Amino acid sequence: MTGLMHGKRGLIMGLANDKSLAWGIAKKLHEQGAELAFSYQGEALAKRVRPLAESLGSDFLIDCDVSNMEALDTAFAQIEERWGKIDFLVHAIGFSDKNELRGKYVDTSLDNFLMTMNISAYSLVAVTKRALPMMSAGGSIVTLTYYGAEKVVPHYNVMGVAKAALEASVKYLANDLGPQGIRVNGISAGPIKTLAASGIGDFRYILKWNELNAPLRRNVTIEDVGGAGLYLLSDLSSGVTGETHHVDCGYHVVGMKQEDAPDI
Ligand code: NAD
Question: Which residues are catalytic (predicted)?
Answer without folding.
Answer: 146 (proton acceptor), 156 (proton acceptor)
